[in-house]
Amino acid sequence: xxxxxxxxxxxxxxxxxxxxxxxxxxxxxxxxxxxxxxxxxxxxxxxxxxxxxxxxxxxxxxxxxxxxxxxxxxxxxxxxxxxxxxxxxxxxxxxxxxxxxxxxxxxxxxxxxxxxxxxxxxxxxxxxxxxxxxxxxxxxxxxxxxxxxxxxxxxxxxxxxxxxxxxxxxxxxxxxxxxxxxxxxxxxxxxxxxxxxxxxxxxxxxxxxxxxxxxxxxxxxxxxxxxxxxxxxxxxxxxxxxxxxxxxxxxxxxxxxxxxxxxxxxxxxxxxxxxxxxxxxxxxxxxxxxxxxxxxxxxxxxxxxxxxxxxxxxxxxxxxxxxxxxxxxxxxxxxxxxxxxxxxxxxxxxxxxxxxxxxxxxxxxxxxxxxxxxxxxxxxxxxxxxxxxxxxxxxxxxxxxxxxxxxxxxxxxxxxxxxxxxxxxxxxxxxxxxxxxxxxxxxxxxxxxxxxxxxxxxxxxxxxxxxxxxxxxxxxxxxxxxxxxxxxxxxxxxxxxxxxxxxxxxxxxxxxxxxxxxxxxxxxxxxxxxxxxxxxxxxxxxxxxxxxxxxxxxxxxxxxxxxxxxxxxxxxxxxxxxxxxxxxxxxxxxxxxxxxxxxxxxxxxxxxxxxxxxxxxxxxxxxxxxxxxxxxxxxxxxxxxxxxxxxxxxx
Length: 651
Description:
Layout: H1 18-22, E1 59-66, E2 81-85, E3 88-89, E4 94-98, H2 103-108, E5 119-121, E6 132-138, H3 144-159, E7 167-172, E8 176-183, H4 186-194, H5 218-225, H6 235-275, E9 281-287, E10 293-294, E11 309-310, H7 312-324, E12 327-333, H8 341-345, E13 349-351, E14 363-365, H9 366-369, H10 374-403, H11 414-426, E15 428-433, E16 444-451, E17 457-459, E18 463-465, E19 472-473, E20 476-477, H12 483-487, E21 495-496, E22 500-506, E23 529-538, E24 553-565, E25 570-582, H13 584-593, E26 595-604, E27 609-617, E28 623-629, H14 636-642
Parallel strand pairs: 6-7, 6-9, 9-12
Antiparallel strand pairs: 1-15, 1-17, 2-3, 2-16, 4-15, 5-22, 7-8, 10-11, 13-14, 16-18, 19-20, 21-28, 22-23, 23-26, 24-25, 24-27, 27-28
């Protein structure tokens, strides 16, 4: 087999092979091999023998400080802040200021080097904002017409995306799905929004999935078919109409409840996913919103209270989970500026094509369709619209307040809302403290932050519910997520505590045989397969290898390769651990040239898959990781052609 040597990447004559240095080539030399990362996106303690798990209650607060013109105030010190919990002062254990990447910093950044065909690195090439930004495009709660406008304005925003801003895009339909993992590349983000998975789709759980307005109610249609005059005051006519109206409202409440449940489940899932990623996460949620409760409909004479619903407790649990995961929510009403559709509907007509002798003809005002006289029902519709809008905006305000964010509604510029949210969420102060009461009693703890700066406006979460983070959920105890598990999640940002380059060489022909070392999910891993050889070069200067009393440098490194499908399911795993005790004369070349690592893994030859590669220093718990779309890889022949070589002749 011919070797492909990329300048600056592989120095085969000087770099010590990992198999020789750490004993990776001898499986029997791995008595303490950690569990494979079959739950890379879930929980699982680090298997490192060097790690120490500490369970000390800790509260982390992000505080945005703005002046009277909504501009960030920079340069504040810990002494400028006063923090209390339930009225008791607390002393911050840590304090840090975070600022957005400036234009000067972005201009001074290095351009990404040309590493060669199929060569990737987790080395950051531009300064990155310390905060992660997530765009959540909510098709479940947003009418199609507003989705179209949102789609257009997001493309406009991404064309002017400032350098260094890490953004991921999620979509919400009948479930939560990842459109694009974290990247600073505007073109990649635009392609994700324009992709097949990011296409605009109707919601099945809002009244009119296109416009979001009211739909033809069953009571109206049935009244025409059954020749019932809505103005007939006979008891039989009123009884039938009221029964059908009650049925209409019951359906509406049921659909709204389903919509709320799906939405909160998705937000909870997103919170758990983001909890493994360090630092602040700005979640910019574009939605038509949903009410936190449904009030009784006093116009229903049969049972006005049956249509009531209150989602406050469910919302509280979700926002508490988001806040604990350091996720700050910026809800944006995707409907922008809008008015009551009933105002226009009361003056326009619709073609019902329902013959009736009672004056409810083919061109019937909408107000009449809803029963009663025009005047009364326009007023009723206006009242319902105002109540519904108020409760929807109340939900947005509460989600924002509970997590320390800000809600944007009644705005025509969705692009401006994104810019404002990211700007606000990119300049902040972070501090942590231990709560005065160390017990988890599920009670609300009020947090108050003040700053010694006249005219300053503060945004932060005003408290939290002291729910035990280690409590059992559905009979299973939630385990802490280790650094490697977090780094190896599909779609997570590149981890760069350990820096490395990796060359991925595809096999020439597919095979039906899975290679040695792979641990596939047999239900998801279907033949034919293609084998990929991974050659990595690790910078060991950040690897912990202390000198022992015998004069040997000791360390342990875990190398992991994971294959994910397009839905984020883990398809295949390859993991190894190597341990070393090296004298100084063998350790010095590693510091100078790096450590060469080789591993192979199989990927289904058909379908859309992603390869995530990670390296874990078990001594320091530092990690490095990079994700590579299989579709972006060139063939083996293309790699050989790029360096002026030819493939070996087939025997």
